[in-house]
Amino acid sequence: MADPELEAIRQQRLAQLQSQFKSGNVDNKQAMEEKRQQIEDRRNAILIQVLDQSARARLNTLCLGKPEKGKMVEDMILNMAQRGQLSGKLGEKGLISLLESVNQQTQRKTVVKFDRRRAALDSDDDDL
Questions:
Q1: Cα–Cα separations (whole angstroms), residue 127 to 117, 119, 121, 123, 124
Q2: Mean pLDDT in the chain?
Q3: Number of other CB atoms surrounding residue 48 within 10 Å
Q4: Which residue from 52, 53, 48, 46 is spatially nearest to 84, judged by alpha carbons?
Q5: Any idea what DSSP says for residue 127?
Q6: 29-49, pLDDT tens digit by residue?
C-alpha cells in the first residue's frame, strides 16, 4: 500500500519542516536576545541621564559586589525617574542616602543562640 515515491516525498517534507523549526527557534532566540539588549540599553541611558558620574560609579561597584541589591536600587531609581520624583541629577550623596534607606528596609536581624546545657555536657573535660 505504501508507495515508495510518496514515502520519499513525506520524508523530504518532514526534513524541510524540521529545518524550518530549527531555524525559527534560532531566530526566536536571537530576537529575544536583541530585545533584552535593547531594554538594557534603555535602562543604561536613563541611568546615565539621572545619575552623575560619581553616583554611577558607586552604583556599578554595588552591582559588582551585590548584583541583587544593585538591580533593586537601579529599579528604584528608574521608577523614581519615570514618576518625576528626581529633580536634576542624583549625586553620590543622594545615592548613599537611598542605599541607606534600602539597607534599613532589607536588613535582617540575626540571632545567635547559644545552648549552655549542650556545652556543659562536653566529653573532653572527662580526660583530666
A1: 19, 16, 13, 8, 6
A2: 84
A3: 12
A4: 46
A5: G
A6: 888 899 999 999 999 999 999
Q: What is the pLDDT of residues 72-89, one digit of tens each?
A: 999 999 999 889 888 888
Q: Among 15-19, 53-57, 105-109, where is mean pLDDT lowest? A: 105-109
Q: What is the CA radius of gyration of the chain?
A: 30
* One-letter identity of residue 50: V
Grid coordinates belonging to 3: 508507495
Domains present along the chain, CATH in parentheses: 12-97 (1.10.8.140)
Residue 119: CB atoms within 10 A of its CB come to: 8
